[in-house]
Structures are given as C-alpha cells and as structure tokens.
Design a protein that fits this description.
Number of domains: 1
Largest sheet: 8 strands, parallel
Bound molecules: D-xylitol-5-phosphate, zinc ion
Order of helices and strands: EHEHEHEHEEHEHEHH
Distance between the termini: 14 Å
CATH topology: TIM Barrel
CATH superfamily: Aldolase class I
Oligomer: single chain
Strand content: 15-25%
CATH class: Alpha Beta
Radius of gyration: 16 Å
Number of helices: 8
Helix content: 25-40%
Length: 221
C-alpha cells in the first residue's frame, strides 16, 4: 500500500492541531512537516517548538523535511520535538554521512532529499546508509506548485537504485502531487506521496485522501 503524507504547509496555520486531527481522521498515513529557514529556501516556516506542541495531537508518524542549511545543528532538537523521520537535503549538508549517522543515533528514520536539478548520482555513496530517499518534484520553498513532469523518469530510476539495496529504503515523492498525477507517481515507484495543496485546499479531506489512495494503489499490473 502506498502511503499518503499530507503536508501541513498548506493547512490553516491558525488551527494546525485541528487540521492534523482532521487529516488523521480522513485517513492520512504520515504527517509531512516542512521546515524552512529562509536561507536554503526562500521561505520560513516552523521549528521544533511548534512540532513539539503538535506532537500531543496525534500518534501518526511525523515526517520532518528539513529545508535548512547545515542541518546537523538542529537534528537533536527535531528528534526531541517528536520527529519519526528526519530528512535532510544533500545540497545542504557538507558531511552527509555524518548527518545521516547523527539522525540514526537517535533511533529515527534518516532520509535524504534531492532538489529537482540534483542528479541521482549524488546519492551513490550514501544510499547504503539511508532509510528513505525523498525526490523533490518541485523546487522547494512553497506549496501548491506544479509537478515537474520530467521527474517521473527520475522517480523510476531512483526506485531501481533503491530496489537493488538489501535494506530496501523507502522512496518518497514531494511536490505537486494531485488526483490526476498520483497514479503515475505511484506507478513510477513512490512508496510515500506527499500532498499539500491537493489535500488542504479540498473541501472534503476524507473523500480527497480516499481518492488519492485509490488512484495511487490501482496500479496497472
Ligand atoms: C515544498 C515542500 C512540499 C510542499 C508540497 O517545498 O517540501 O512538501 O509543501 O506541497 P504541494 O503538494 O502543494 O506541492
Ligand atoms: Zn516537503
């Protein structure tokens, strides 16, 4: 089963707790939390204090996507705040192996993410150590952007790389997923699909998440 991870970047920020509860009741599998620092990406969102408050609302896994420069400085804070998955960008970490080992030392899943313009070659040496690869299918910084179409082939190539690994890391796809393209994203090999605007801009979260799951799981044999 493909997992759906609503990104709270597109939720009503004045009611984040209620919004998380609503998507949990609507069938969300993970909660995707976008952390932006205004340096690595041209936007600023939330930090460990907000995540720690939200941790009281749900038991769903918190999938924390760090779009921050030099992430090592804050890994422990995000772990203590309640992250279950911590993903860093290859473009943001100088000593990526050290960063990944630091994340794993806290007993949580360690992910690496690639911007749309970053080649899969960049993970050749770190793939052995990661629990999850996150492929960005928009340029990070904002919700509600359009899926970059050429990413489908990158997702498929990433899936082949991950499948060849004995520890089978998960493949997550983030950016521009919607009811129309989620079938293709799933077919290309995504295990976890982030959906921000597609969920939180919808009238009915339950119907929308159910439809996303149906489309993601109805693969052509
Ligand atoms: C973009 C974020 C994404 C974004 C996804 O920088 O990493 O998680 O919120 O939102 P949609 O699904 O609206 O593209
Ligand atoms: Zn994200």
């Amino acid at each position: 089963m493909k997992l759906i991870a609503p990104s709270i970047l597109s939720a009503d920020a004045s009611r984040l707790g209620e919004e998380i509860l609503a998507v949990e009741q609507a069938g969300a599998d993970w909660i995707h939390i976008d952390v932006m620092d205004g340096t690595f990406v041209p936007n600023i969102t939330m930090g460990p204090a907000v995540i720690s408050s939200l941790r009281k609302v749900t038991k769903l896994p918190f999938d924390v996507h760090l779009m921050i420069a030099d992430p090592d400085r804050y890994i422990e804070s995000f772990f203590k705040a309640g992250a279950d998955v911590i993903t860093v960008h290859v473009e943001a970490s100088t000593h990526l192996h050290r960063t990944i080992e630091l994340i794993k030392s806290f007993g949580v899943k360690a992910g690496v993410s690639l911007n749309p313009a970053t080649s899969l070659d960049q993970i050749a040496e770190i793939i052995h150590y990661i629990d999850l690869l996150l492929i960005m299918t928009v340029n990070p910084g904002f919700g509600g952007q359009q899926f970059i179409g050429t990413s489908l082939s990158k997702i498929a190539r990433a899936k082949r790389m991950l499948e060849a690994m004995p520890h089978q890391p998960l493949l997550e796809v983030d950016g521009g997923a919607n009811l129309k393209n989620i079938g293709d994203i799933a077919q290309a090999g995504a295990d976890v699909i982030v959906a921000g605007a597609a969920v939180f801009n919808a009238e009915d979260y339950q119907k929308t998440i159910a439809a996303l799951k149906t489309a993601a799981n109805s693969l052509i044999a």
